[in-house]
Amino acid sequence: MTPGRPRILVSGGTGFLGDAVRPLLEAFADVTLISRKQPGCLRADLAKWDGGLAPETLRGKFDVFLHMAGLYDLRATKREAHTQNVVGTHTALTITQKAEIPHFVHISTVAVAMSAGTAPIARTDQLESLRTFPDAYSETKAAAEQMVRTWSSPHLRSRLILRPGVLVGDQREGKIHRIDGPYHAAEGLRKLLRIASLLPGPLPLPGRADRFMPIVPVDVAADAIARLVELAWGDQWEGLRCLHLAPAKGLSSQELYTSTLRHLGHEGQEFILMSRLPDWLVKPAAELLVRFPQEELEYLLNFPRYDTRETEAILGANWCPEFRDFEKEFWRGYEAFVSHR
Ligand SMILES: NC(=O)c1ccc[n+]([C@@H]2O[C@H](COP(=O)([O-])OP(=O)(O)OC[C@H]3O[C@@H](n4cnc5c(N)ncnc54)[C@H](OP(=O)(O)O)[C@@H]3O)[C@@H](O)[C@H]2O)c1
């Protein structure tokens, strides 16, 4: 192991994931955060040339660049997503090169390897740069990851790509900053249940029995990231490595809806899974209920399984809990969020 504390330059350290990662890094490293606006940080905008920094002045000052900055929004325009995810990653790599930082850790996403319908288990060397993506977020994150994979510079010793699953509230309180991911099921069902009695038979819901959502509590993902950054630096990893930060099994559509209906007080409500909601339901639902988050749900319910063997070999078999282990806290965090909006 390399002695002493590593000096880590961190982007994205002020966001949902970053808030959870930061204190864990500070326990073993000297941390400098990059932010566009947060006081006390190195002021930089990765959408700008060189981030608006003079990266040469940072030469020799950092051992690791942990790049978490990005735009996670399934409804972002292509231009916004490209600027934050592709240009932002290019700038982060350029700073790494000009500042001669030897280790680069990139936070990607499982969405870069959706592979629905082709391979049932996504490998870590799988990147669908030629496929049609469901949204600009996935497409631009895949382009960013591709750039990290092919980037070379004489001072860069290791590139570690981490692909977190869909992040949800932490295991203790379930605290969230916004509604995304599986929380859309609760939003959609709350609305749909208002017209459930008008529909014949069981409630049709989007989903497939053979798909599992790779959800990960944000504190669990943060702990994995901090441990892997410490290992990559301490053991002086070389070359390229890519790991999925996802649970071994994940949350099935059946489990998600059963839990959501129970939480909403409709435990007995019958439902059937459909790969697409029929138009006869979507149209009146959209008119009656303003908006049903159909696209988000269809996206979220189409993930393949992810190969997590290497992650488990490094972090241990039980590093990531399954939904049933934090179900109560998940709903507590959702209720705390919706009661304050
Ligand atoms: N949330 C998820 O479910 C999820 C799942 C898988 C992967 N990820 C990935 O994890 C990363 C963080 O996601 P998050 O949910 O924590 O996002 P978030 O809460 O929206 O935070 C975004 C972070 O990125 C920084 N940032 C954005 N644009 C920047 C720019 N132009 N220059 C400098 N900093 C910039 C922001 O810093 P300032 O605002 O302080 O400048 C902030 O710290 C992203 O790369 C995302 O793709 C997220």
Can you characterise this structure?
The chain has 341 residues and is α/β, with parallel strands linked by helices. The chain folds into two domains: 7-169 and 216-248 and 305-321, 3-Layer(aba) Sandwich (Rossmann fold), CATH 3.40.50.720; 183-211 and 251-303, no CATH class. The protein has ten helices and 15 strands. It has helices at 16-26, 78-98, 136-150, 183-192, 218-234, 253-263, 279-289, 294-300, 309-315, 327-338, and strands at 7-11, 30-35, 42-43, 64-67, 103-107, 121-122, 158-164, 166-168, 203-206, 212-213, 215-217, 239-245, 251-252, 271-274, 305-306. The radius of gyration is 21 Å and the shape is elongated. The mean pLDDT is 89. The structure holds NADP nicotinamide-adenine-dinucleotide phosphate. NADP nicotinamide-adenine-dinucleotide phosphate (NAP) binds at residues 11-18, 34-38, 44-47, 68-70, 72, 84, 88, 107, 109, 141, 164, 166-167, 181.
